């Protein structure tokens, strides 16, 4: 096999990459943030910098499938609020990649993800306690907080909401550029904004399709995407489809509370992997 010879891959290494590609499809249609495991697998099998270039087209393929599945559930006000900050983060990440080594990048992003996961868990528990205290007097807190059957939350227009969106946006753009690790950052933002499953998946699907596609010229310019990486992508992209179908089947069987816990758990796992890889 020319492709395996070109990349010096054994059968087991290719199988690991194929599983990682399948997991990308699953994460895009079920548990966003789980593809940080894919990131770790790609970085373990391939050279660290090269792995980001190979993984990016795989992620875009997963994004396309996610958009086709959840396109009706996107919350565009949230997306428009995030994009300018994300663009700034991508530019900063591009310059950072010009001089930072893999160890510095992985350690810093891993630490950030773990800190953000801890803050998110603390905020969710505080919100749950406040909602429980108010339920008898004011009814179902889910109706008041925007966490009912709607796909997304009410638009946040406060100064604190705008600052929060910009902060997460810059960090998301930075992490997605330097390590394809923006998924956990955006997952934590969408959870903290009160999104339910379908709104969460639809909004993140469009977000990452647009952001990942915009990263392609930067990755080509840095030499991360070339003919050799695309040859490997052509062999791996086929495994994204069954993963996406599995995710679509699984998400309807996961309740909202379990969904949130799985997203946070995937974020923690991804952060630990970035710290120790």
List the helices and strands and how they pair.
Layout: H1 2-6, H2 11-29, H3 35-45, H4 48-70, H5 76-97, H6 102-138, H7 141-144, H8 159-179, H9 182-192, H10 197-221, H11 227-236, H12 240-251, H13 256-276
Helix pairs in contact: 2-3, 2-4, 2-12, 3-4, 3-13, 4-10, 4-11, 4-12, 5-8, 5-10, 6-9, 6-13, 8-9, 9-13
Please describe what this structure looks like:
The chain is mainly alpha-helical and about 280 residues long. Helix 3 packs antiparallel against helix 4 and helix 6 packs parallel to helix 9 (about 180-190). The longest helix has about 35 residues, at about 100-140. The two termini are about 30 Å apart. Residues about 140-150 have low confidence and may be disordered. The chain is globular. It is built from 13 helices and no strands.
Give keywords.
277 residues; 0% strand; globular
* Helical residues, percent: over 70%
Question: How many helix segments?
Answer: 13
Low-confidence stretches: 140-151
Strand content: under 5%
Alpha-beta content class: mainly alpha
Shape designation: globular
Distance between the termini: 29 Å
What order do the SSEs take from the amino end to the carboxyl end, as H and E? HHHHHHHHHHHHH
- How many β-strand runs? 0
Query: Average pLDDT value?
Result: 81
Largest sheet: none
Computed CA radius of gyration, to the nearest angstrom: 18 Å
């Amino acid at each position: 096999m020319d492709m395996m010879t070109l990349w010096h891959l054994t059968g087991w290494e290719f199988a690991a990459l194929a599983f990682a590609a399948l997991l990308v499809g699953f994460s895009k249609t079920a548990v966003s943030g789980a593809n940080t495991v894919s990131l770790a697998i790609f970085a373990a099998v391939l050279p660290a910098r090269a792995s980001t270039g190979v993984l990016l087209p795989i992620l875009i393929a997963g994004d396309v499938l996610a958009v086709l599945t959840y396109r009706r559930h996107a919350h565009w006000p949230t997306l428009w609020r995030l994009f300018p900050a994300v663009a700034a983060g991508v530019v900063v990440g591009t310059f950072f990649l010009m001089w930072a080594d893999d160890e510095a990048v992985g350690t810093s992003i891993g630490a950030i993800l773990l800190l953000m996961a801890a803050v998110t868990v603390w905020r969710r528990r505080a919100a749950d306690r406040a909602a429980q205290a108010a339920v008898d007097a004011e009814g179902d807190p889910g109706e008041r907080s925007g966490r009912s059957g709607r796909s997304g939350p009410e638009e946040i227009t406060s100064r604190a909401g705008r600052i929060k969106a910009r902060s997460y946006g810059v960090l998301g753009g930075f992490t997605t550029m330097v390590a394809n690790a923006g998924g956990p950052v955006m997952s934590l933002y969408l959870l903290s904004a009160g999104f339910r499953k379908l709104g969460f998946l639809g909004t993140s699907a469009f977000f990452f399709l647009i952001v990942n596609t915009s990263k392609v010229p930067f990755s080509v310019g840095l030499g991360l995407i070339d003919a050799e990486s695309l040859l490997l992508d052509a062999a791996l992209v086929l495994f994204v489809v069954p993963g996406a179908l599995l995710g679509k089947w699984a998400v309807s069987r996961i309740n909202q509370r379990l969904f949130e816990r799985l997203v946070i758990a995937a974020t923690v796992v991804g952060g630990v992997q970035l710290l120790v890889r």
